[in-house]
Specification:
Order of helices and strands: HHHHHHHHHHHHHHHHHEHHEEHEEHEE
Strand order of the largest sheet: 2-4-5-7-6
Radius of gyration: 60 Å
Strand content: 5-15%
Largest sheet: 5 strands, mixed
Structural class: alpha+beta
Number of strands: 7
Bound molecules: adenosine-5'-diphosphate
Distance between the termini: 68 Å
Shape: rod-shaped
Low-confidence stretches: 1-32
Helix content: over 70%
Number of helices: 21
Length: 637
C-alpha cells in the first residue's frame, strides 16, 4: 500500500519535474532531448511492474544523462534511491549511491562524492557485488587522485585492479591499469607509467575494444608529448585518431588531430600539415562546442603561423585563442552556476519528497490513531458486555438457586400429594366397601318395603358407591404407576398386546359395531401390563366417545430416527381445541353427564408414556373425531 502510494507520488514528481527543469536559456539545445528522455522514461516507468524495475529504470536514466543534464539526473537518482530504500533493494541502492557520487564528482564536490562512493562500496561488500565493488574502489581512487593523494589513490586503484583480475573484467582492467599509470606519471615514475599504459593497451587491442584502445593511445601520446618524444607521440595520436574515426567520435577526432598538430609544431616539422590538422580540429571543435579543444587548436595555429612568420594570422589565432579561453572560462563559470542551481533545486526537490513522506507519515499516524481508538472502543464494549454478562450470570445463578429450591419444594409437595392419593384411595376403599356391602344388603332385603322415593335414594347410594369404587380403583392404579420405580421390562410384541386388549373390550366392540383396523405393530422393550393399559384406555375412549353407528378406530405406527410414533384415531365426537391439553390431567372430564368415567384414564396414559421417556398429545376437531399420538423414543428392540 505504502509502496503503491509512493510510486504514484514519484511518478507525479517526475511529471512535475517537466516544469522545473530544462527551462529555455543556455540549455535550449538540450530541451528537446530532455522532453524525449522524459517521455521515454514515463513509458518505461508505466510498464514497470515492480519497484525493483522502477529503481533500475530511474538509476539507468540518471546514469545516461549524468553529463548532459546533471540537474535531471539528480532528480532521477533520488527517486531511484526512494524506490530502492523502501523495499531494501541493496543492489539498486548501491548503484544509485554510486551514480549520485558521480554527479557530485562532476560538480567537483569531492566530499559528497566520496561519501556516496563509500555508501555504495559498503553495500556492495554486503551483497558481494564484485563488478560494482571494483568500480567503487576505482572511483574512490579517482577522488584521492584529484586531491593529489597519490598513495591512497594507488591503493584503491590496486584493490579495484585485483578484483577485476579475479573476475576477469577486461574492460574494467583497461581503466584500472590506465589509472595506475596516471598515478605513476604524476609521481614521475615514467617506466611504471608506461608499463601500466601498455598493459591497458594490450588488453584493449586483445579484446578489440576500440574506445579503450583509442583512449589509452591518446594518454600514451600525451605522455610522450610531455617527454618531448614528438615522433612516438604523433604515432599514438595518429592511431587514436584512426580508431575514433571508426566510431565517429567527434570529440576524440578533434582532440587527437590537435595533439598531432601540437607534436608537429613542437617538432617544427611540416608546419603546413600541422596547420591543416589544427584547422580541421578547430572546425570540428567549433561545431561540437568543444571549447577547450577549440582554444587549444587556436593556440596551436597561432604558434604555427608565428613559426611561419605569418604574424597577422598568428595574431588572429592568438585573438581566437583568447576568446576561446574566455569561452572556456565562461562555460566553466556557467557550469558552476548551473551546478549551484541544480544543487539548490535538488535540495528543494528533496525537501518536497521529505514533505510528501511526512504527509504520508502523518496520514499513517492518523490511521494508527483511528485504529487505536476503534480498538479501545471495542475493548470498552468488550469490557462492558463482559460486565453485563457477569451481572446476568450472577442473576441467573440466583434465579437458578431459587428455581432449584422451588423445584425441590414442588417435588416434595407432589410426592406428598401422590402419597396422599395412594393412601386415601387405599384407605377409603375399606369404609366404602362397608357402605357398599350394607347398602347392597339394604337394597336386597328392604327394597320392596320402601316407597318410590326410598327406592330412588337406595339406588343413588348404590350407584354412587359403584362410581366411588371405580374412582378409587383408577386413582389407586394411577398412584401405583407413579410410585413404581423399577418397572420390569422385556421384549413385548405389541401385536399380542392388541389382541388381548381386543379380547378385553370384545363386549363393547361387538355391542357398538366397532371396526378396528390395526397396523402390524413392532416388538419393543417395555412393560406388557402398562402397554395393555395404555392401548386399552385409548381404544376404550375411542369407542366410548363416539356417536357414530359404526365407530371406526385406526391404530398405526411409524418408525423414524426419533423412535416409534403410534396413533389411535377415531371418528367420534372430537374434543374442542381449548380442552385438548386439559384432558390429560387427573379427574379432567368433559362430558360428565352422557358418558361414564372417572377422568383418570388419560392421566394414566400420560404417566405410562412419560415413564418411557415419551410424549402423548391429541389432535382433534369437535365432531370430526380424535387422533391420540404417542412417541416412544429409542425403545425398539
Ligand atoms: P374418562 O374417560 O374416564 O372420562 P379420561 O381421562 O379417559 O377419563 O378422559 C378424559 C376426558 O377426555 C373424557 O371425559 C372425554 O371428555 C375426553 N376424551 C377422552 N378420549 C376421547 C375421545 N377419544 N374422544 C372424545 N373425547 C375424549
Amino acid at each position: 500500500m505504502a509502496n503503491c502510494s509512493n510510486s504514484i507520488i514519484t511518478i507525479f514528481l517526475i511529471t512535475l519535474s517537466l516544469f522545473f527543469v530544462g527551462k529555455p536559456s543556455t540549455l535550449l539545445a538540450q530541451t528537446s532531448s530532455i522532453s524525449t528522455i522524459q517521455a521515454d522514461l514515463q513509458v518505461q516507468l508505466s510498464s514497470a511492474k515492480t519497484d525493483i524495475e522502477k529503481a533500475n529504470i530511474l538509476q539507468e536514466a540518471a546514469w545516461n544523462i549524468k553529463n548532459s543534464n546533471p540537474k535531471l539526473a539528480f532528480q532521477y537518482v533520488n527517486q531511484s534511491i526512494d524506490f530502492a530504500e523502501q523495499i531494501n533493494y541493496k543492489k539498486g541502492m548501491a548503484n544509485s549511491y554510486h551514480t549520485l557520487g558521480m554527479l557530485y564528482w562532476y560538480q567537483s564536490d569531492h566530499k559528497l562524492a566520496s561519501e556516496y562512493f563509500f555508501k555504495a562500496l559498503n553495500l556492495r561488500k554486503e551483497i558481494n557485488d564484485h563488478v560494482g565493488l571494483a568500480r567503487s574502489y576505482n572511483n574512490i581512487g579517482n577522488i584521492y587522485f584529484k586531491q593529489k593523494n597519490y598513495k591512497d589513490a594507488l591503493s584503491y586503484y590496486q584493490t579495484s585492479l585485483d578484483i577485476r583480475l579475479s573476475i576477469k573484467d577486461s574492460i574494467g582492467l583497461i581503466y584500472s591499469y590506465n589509472n595506475i599509470a596516471d598515478v605513476f606519471l604524476n609521481e614521475n615514475k615514467y617506466e611504471d607509467a608506461v608499463t601500466n599504459y601498455t598493459k591497458a593497451l594490450d588488453i584493449a587491442i586483445d579484446k578489440n575494444y576500440n574506445n579503450g584502445e583509442a583512449f589509452i593511445n591518446t594518454n600514451l601520446g600525451s605522455f610522450q608529448l610531455k617527454m618531448k618524444a614528438y615522433q612516438p607521440a604523433y604515432l599514438y595520436f595518429e592511431r587514436a585518431l584512426e580508431l575514433y574515426e571508426k566510431s565517429n567520435n567527434k570529440n576524440g577526432i578533434a582532440q587527437n588531430l590537435n595533439f598531432m598538430s601540437e607534436a608537429l609544431v613542437n617538432q617544427k616539422d611540416d608546419l603546413p600539415k600541422a596547420i591543416g590538422f589544427a584547422k580541421e580540429s578547430l572546425d570540428i571543435a567549433t561545431k561540437i562546442r568543444a571549447t577547450q579543444i577549440k582554444a587549444a587548436a587556436s593556440g596551436n595555429l597561432s604558434k604555427a603561423y608565428a613559426l611561419l612568420d605569418d604574424f597577422e594570422a598568428a595574431y588572429n589565432y592568438e585573438q581566437l585563442y583568447r576568446t576561446s579561453q574566455m569561452e572556456v572560462f565562461n562555460e566553466e563559470s556557467q557550469r558552476a552556476v548551473i551546478e549551484i542551481q541544480s544543487k539548490y533545486e535538488s535540495v528543494v526537490n528533496q525537501s518536497k519528497v521529505i514533505q510528501q513522506k511526512n504527509e504520508i507519515l502523518i496520514k499513517e499516524q492518523e490511521i494508527i490513531l483511528k485504529n487505536i481508538l476503534i480498538g479501545l472502543t471495542f475493548f470498552f464494549i468488550f469490557l462492558l458486555s463482559g460486565f453485563f454478562l457477569y451481572v446476568q450470570w450472577k442473576n441467573q445463578k440466583k434465579t437458578n438457586s431459587i428455581l432449584a429450591q422451588n423445584n425441590q419444594e414442588l417435588i416434595n409437595s407432589n410426592q406428598a400429594l401422590e402419597r396422599f392419593a395412594y393412601v386415601s384411595s387405599h384407605d377409603l376403599k375399606e369404609p366404602l366397601r362397608t357402605i357398599g356391602s350394607f347398602s347392597t344388603l339394604l337394597k336386597r332385603r328392604y327394597f320392596n318395603l320402601l316407597d318410590e322415593d326410598g327406592k330412588d335414594y337406595i339406588n343413588f347410594i348404590v350407584k354412587g358407591v359403584d362410581q366411588m369404587y371405580s374412582l378409587l380403583d383408577d386413582l389407586l392404579e394411577y398412584s401405583k404407576i407413579i410410585h413404581k420405580k423399577d418397572i420390569p421390562v422385556k421384549a413385548v410384541d405389541l401385536n399380542h398386546v392388541l389382541e388381548s386388549v381386543q379380547e378385553s373390550l370384545s363386549h363393547s366392540i361387538k355391542e357398538k359395531n366397532v371396526t378396528l383396523q390395526v397396523d402390524a405393530l413392532p416388538i419393543i422393550t417395555t412393560n406388557q401390563t402398562q402397554m395393555h393399559q395404555l392401548f386399552q384406555n385409548l381404544i376404550n375412549n375411542a369407542i366410548k366417545f363416539n356417536d357414530k353407528d359404526i365407530p371406526a378406530i385406526n391404530i398405526q405406527v411409524q418408525k423414524d430416527d426419533q423412535g416409534f410414533l403410534f396413533s389411535v384415531k377415531d371418528n367420534g365426537i372430537g374434543i374442542k381445541e381449548e380442552y385438548q391439553n386439559k384432558i390429560f390431567g387427573v379427574f379432567q372430564r368433559l362430558s360428565k353427564e352422557e358418558y361414564t368415567g372417572t377422568g383418570v384414564g388419560l392421566a394414566i396414559c400420560q404417566k405410562i408414556v412419560e415413564q418411557h421417556k415419551g410424549k402423548i398429545w391429541v389432535e382433534s376437531e369437535e365432531g370430526q373425531g380424535s387422533a391420540f399420538y404417542f412417541r416412544f423414543p429409542e425403545l425398539d428392540n
